[in-house]
Design a protein that fits this description.
Layout: H1 7-28, H2 34-41, H3 45-48, H4 50-69, H5 75-94, H6 99-127, H7 133-162, H8 164-185, H9 200-204, H10 207-227, H11 230-236, H12 242-266, H13 271-287, H14 289-292, H15 296-324, H16 330-358, H17 364-392
Helix pairs in contact: 1-6, 1-7, 1-8, 4-6, 4-16, 5-6, 5-8, 6-7, 6-16, 7-8, 7-12, 7-15, 10-15, 10-16, 10-17, 12-15, 13-15, 13-17, 15-16
Length: 393
């Protein structure tokens, strides 16, 4: 057994990893079920697609206010309540008699999502010895990666076989099982203290934190300029067959596990060189996307490296934000991170759509690379300078 990690530590982190898996599976689950949902309620697929956009906007807008509202609650109790409400909303989704009821239940899921991703990383690092904080964070991200590999395809397969309602029901049942497991394994974890609105300006005056938030927004935007349209890009530009597109997307998600492993191995000893390397990888993958598309093996390999890099970036930024936040504000800091990341998703998707409409889908990589390059320069010239200055102060 790894030095310093007890069986209880492992059991607790594995439980939170399972929770991350079901939350991430649920977030994008409607993508593979839109046609069936639209047919069931006699609406267009575009109308059904508002389930996805509404979810993202709710997470973006409510992450901070909801987290401030519950910031005084003991973390074990808060986590259990969130998972319980998540499961109830999934059951309500499966029982929806109309589109409005389905939308309301999905908004309920989005509210639980907003709080879950604000507290799961701070909770994970509090459960393990200090020397294993990077391992705890990488485990949470591994749950996300596994959801991209197995959760979404499995949800679609269940939906196609026995109906979309059974997919939501299945996630609800998994949520209740996870609730039961964590009810027995999680210890009480006191809140770091209440966080009120009057403390928010002070938090945002932290130049390093604000710099990390700007970097988060820029990289999330650049990433989703390309990733939001990667399926049609692989089909129309790289000319991959449908089965290879599915395999490539699964490889993309699967390499996130390698990215989280690289983070736990290299970030604790060399955090800033690691982040610099990862940012270069993200920029390079976007910039080379069109060039790599001329041969199937190269575009698949590039997507693999890209998937690894964006996951490593995500978990590295979470670690930096937790490390640079006051003790009583880590959950609130993470809620701001979650909201900004979702804003980047929305803006990046819009920019990518404009590139596809007014230029060409083959140009999405170049558009994303320009934003990523600006983000990299901002990291090198501004944030890194502030971090090194803080170390010597």
């Amino acid at each position: 057994m790894e030095n310093g990690m007890t069986a209880k530590n492992w059991a607790q982190i594995i439980g939170l990893t399972c929770a991350a898996f079901i939350f991430n599976t649920s977030e994008f689950m409607p993508i593979g079920l839109l046609t069936d949902i639209a047919q069931d309620f006699a609406i267009t697929e575009a109308h059904a697609g508002t389930l996805i956009s509404a979810y993202a906007w709710v997470v973006m807008l409510l992450s901070l206010p909801l987290m401030i509202l519950v910031s005084k609650l003991e973390l074990r109790k808060l986590m259990l309540w969130i998972i319980l409400l998540f499961g109830i909303c999934q059951i309500l989704s499966s029982l929806s008699e109309g589109y409005a009821m389905l939308m309301l239940s999905r908004i309920g899921v989005a509210c639980t999502h907003a709080i879950f991703w604000s507290i799961v990383s701070p909770l994970a690092v509090k459960l393990v010895p200090h020397s294993h904080r990077a391992l705890a964070l990488s485990m949470i991200v591994t749950g996300t990666s596994i959801a991209m590999i197995f959760g979404l395809p499995l949800g679609r397969m269940v939906g196609l076989t026995i109906g979309w309602r059974m997919t939501f029901l299945g996630v609800g049942i998994l949520a209740f099982l996870t609730f039961a497991y964590l009810a027995f394994s999680l210890p009480k974890v006191p809140s770091s203290g209440g966080f009120s609105l009057h403390k928010l300006p002070e938090l945002l005056k932290n130049p390093i934190l604000t710099g990390l938030y700007i970097l988060t927004f820029a990289i999330a935007t650049s990433y989703y300029v390309g990733y939001s349209y990667i399926e049609p890009f692989l089909k129309q530009v790289a000319h991959l067959q449908d089965n290879w597109i599915t395999a490539t997307l699964m490889i993309f998600g699967g390499m996130g596990i390698l990215g989280s492993f690289a983070f736990s191995k290299f970030y604790p000893k060399h955090p800033y060189p690691f982040l610099t390397t990862i940012l270069l990888c993200v920029t390079g993958c976007l910039g080379l996307l069109h060039l790599a598309s001329f041969a199937s093996p190269t575009v698949i390999l590039l997507c693999a490296v890209w998937g690894m890099a964006v996951t490593a970036f995500n978990v590295s930024l979470q670690a930096e934000i937790i490390n640079k936040s006051p003790l009583d504000a880590t959950s609130v800091s993470m809620s701001i991170f979650s909201g900004i990341f979702n804003l980047g998703i929305a803006i990046g998707t819009s920019i990518g759509g404009a590139v596809c409409t007014y230029l060409s889908i083959s140009e999405i990589g170049y558009a994303g690379a320009i934003i990523a390059l600006l983000a990299f320069l901002y990291w090198k010239k501004v944030i890194l300078h502030k971090l090194k200055k803080a170390q010597t102060a």
